Amino acid sequence: MPQLNPNPWFFIMLTSWLTFSLIIQPKLLAFTSINQPLNKTLTTTKATPWPWPWT
């Protein structure tokens, strides 16, 4: 059964993880967002009851 032979697949998996970890991930982490998050104060709104006509 060739699926149980880890020889070619282990190298492919190791190469792909090293590529992601050493090349792609630092480039993604260096990306800065254009719109920085703002510290907004929370405003509480007073809930007014709806005047139902059938009550």
TrEMBL record:
One of its GO terms (biological process) is proton motive force-driven ATP synthesis. It is found in: Mitochondrion membrane. Keywords: ATP synthesis, CF(0), Hydrogen ion transport, Ion transport, Membrane, Mitochondrion, Transmembrane, Transmembrane helix, Transport. It holds the Pfam family ATP-synt_8. Its main location: mitochondrion. It comes from the Eukaryota. GO terms for molecular function: proton transmembrane transporter activity. The chain crosses the membrane at residues 6-24. It is a single-pass membrane protein. InterPro entries: ATP8_metazoa (IPR001421), ATPase_protein_8 (IPR050635). GO terms for cellular component: mitochondrial membrane; proton-transporting ATP synthase complex. Belongs to the ATPase protein 8 family. This is ATP synthase complex subunit 8. It comes from Pterocles burchelli.
